Amino acid sequence: MVVKGRVLIEGKGEGALLRLAAPLSFWGGVDPKTGRVSDPRHPQHGMSVAGTVLALAEPRGSSSSSAIMLELIARGLAPAALLLGEVDAILTLGIVVAREMGHATLPALELAPADLARLPEGRLRVAADGTIIAIA
Amino acid sequence: MTLALTAAERALIEGAEGPAAAMAARIVAEAARLMGAAELVPVESAHIDGCLYHGDSGVHFAERLVELGGKVAVPTTLNVGALDLLHPGRVKFDPATAQMARRLMVASEALGCAPTWTCAPYQAGHRPRLSAHVAWGESNAVAFVNSVLGARTNRLGDFLDLCCAIAARAPRYGLHLDENRLARIVIDVSGLSPELRRTDAFCPVLGAILGAEAGSAVAAITGVPAGTNEDCLKALGATAASTGAVGLFHVVGVTPEAPDLETALGGSAPERRIEVTPGLLRQARDRLSTAAAGSDRIDAVAVGSPHFSLQEFRALAALSEGRRFRVPFYACTGRGVLAELERADLMAPLKASGVEIVVDTCVVVAPILPPDAGVLMTNSGKFAFYAPANTGFATVYGSLADCVASAAAGRVTRDERLWS
User: Fold this and answer.
1) What mean pLDDT comes out for the span B210-232?
2) Burial class for A7, CB neighbours closer than 10 Å (0-12, 13-18, 19+)
3) A6-9 and A108-110 as β-strands: parallel, antiparallel, unpaired?
4) By the CB < 8 Å criterion, does A62 face chain B?
5) Which of A24, A63, A87, A95 to mutate to probe the B interface, most B CBs <10 Å?
6) Could you tell me whether strands A131-134 and A123-126 are parallel, antiparallel, or unpaired per DSSP bridges?
7) CA B136, CA B138: separation in Å to the nearest integer?
8) CA–CA separation, B112 vs B229, rounded Å?
9) pTM (predicted TM-score)
10) What pLDDT is recorded for position B335?
11) Average pLDDT, stretch B375-398?
């Protein structure tokens, strides 16, 4: 199965799909020192976003989430790719700034909500053109 | 949609005004492309949320701009930092972290920003005019400046606010455009008792419902009493911007773009209409508390998110008069309001009751609370939302009067009459 997203930020990435079951504000919701979901009310509390293909249906929360994204990138704890159900100016900006600062960054794609929902569990590879494929 | 830049904007990106302005303009243009903006819009002012320490990477970014000769090109205020600069020792960071937090605050000031250090800049003299295009960060400040003042900004992420201030431009999309400022959802509270709608604890709970229901959509709220004050609207927006991605809301008959419901909706029918019942309101209130139900334990009280205004301190002083608190009671505010408190002779009575005033920062963004996490009581929907993850404290939500009564009793005591 192949799903194609609209490229927001170019790049390639590969990792296990982590589909967020509820909206998550990175600030106050992800610990930049560990990459783990730190909001105790979030259903995936304790899980790490580092190295995952992270799928978020809807962005939420603090405008400081850009800073958390930059810090995760700088510490090597960022997701391998970001798949967004709607374009989010806050998380993607953390990636833009990381690129300006010379860090290796991750791709960000916008996916139609139906495509986001039908992504298969397991490891996914995101290609530079926005194609997402399941890998063994 | 492709982004069209003016000749002046292209020159800016190419370095006509130096490398810092070029870097800032590049980031603004990239954000505009990401969001599908057709062009940039000149801004009149900015409020910067990037001065709070989240890690070394943000410090390096601000210092890079300083090294490159960066200066903000429009009047710009600063949000909270991670240190109370007026009360050394209040924030219990290790020395290395404190030094990085201070470096970020120093770099932010070096870029020409006013050292206001407040999340309520709109109560520290920074009040853009109706319809002004601005570039603001900090979710509560964005909600307030759009909704209560009728100025226009998107919810800018950290760094973009600063880049917009340096480039004097913002991506023109979203809430800068007339059509996106119209309400698509109606939230009606007129079925609730008038007494409940006038209590101070009502607005944050309504904000929690607004955030959960609206997400990032614009809602118009009907049934809020005329004359609802600015502090109440501030609390409403702050909670909504925490529980949802709310950047603009209208309160019909209260906020400037909603003289009536038809105007707020732009003549269209709403996509959704939500009637707030007493049961829905109680559920939303209860979600703001994470402490075990039935326990009356309380270890500290925190108020002032967003930062307390002079009016809120007056209310706190009146409620606290003659009382002595048994648990630490933190009230967070900006240094501008602190100066007003001193002029109004309110400091001594507040201190006598045991109120500890935190300036330039707040208790959920910096380690100020007692070291052993327990139960934090608050009248702030935003504190209630963020404290569990950021501080480890469980929360109990109550009115300001409940907070004062509980701090004095040393156990949680809430007036349930209005809610039942």
Assistant:
1) 95
2) middle
3) antiparallel
4) yes
5) A63
6) antiparallel
7) 7
8) 33
9) 0.94
10) 97
11) 95
Question: Are A58 and B245 in contact (CB < 8 Å)?
Answer: yes
Query: Would you kindly state where each structural domain of chain A is located, as residue ranges?
Result: 2-134
Q: How far is A122 from chain B (nearest CA, A)?
A: 28
Domains of chain B in sequence order: 7-177 (3.30.499), 182-287 (no CATH), 300-419 (3.30.499.10)
Contact A94 B58 (CB under 8 A): no
Rounded Cα–Cα distance for residues B66 and B83 (Å): 21
Calculate the average pLDDT of chain A: 93
| A29 at interface of B, judged by CB pairs closer than 8 A | yes
**Residue A43, pLDDT score:** 95
Q: How far is A1 from chain B (nearest CA, A)?
A: 27
Q: What is the mean predicted confidence (pLDDT) over B289-294?
A: 93
**In this predicted complex, what is the ipTM?**
0.94
Q: Which of B23, B57, B138 sits opposite A71 (nearest CB)?
A: B57
> Is residue B235 classed as helix, strand or coil in its secondary structure?
helix
For B94, the 3-state DSSP assignment is coil
| The two three-digit tokens of residue B68, written as one number | 């490159």
Chain B residues touching residue A105 (CB < 8 angstroms): none
- If residue B275 lies in a helix (H) or strand (E), which one and from where to where? strand B272-275
DSSP for residue B45: -
CATH topology of domain A2-134: Glucose Oxidase; domain 1 (3.50.30)
Q: What pLDDT score was predicted for residue B245?
A: 85
Residues of chain B that touch chain A, judged by Cβ-Cβ distance less than 8 Å: 23, 26-27, 30-31, 34-36, 49-50, 52, 54-58, 60-61, 64, 137-139, 142, 154-161, 171, 215-216, 242, 244-245, 290, 385-386, 388-390
Write A34-38 long-range contacts (CB < 8 A, 24+).
A34/A77, A35/A72, A35/A75, A35/A77, A35/A78, A38/B389
Side chain identity at residue B327, one-letter code = V
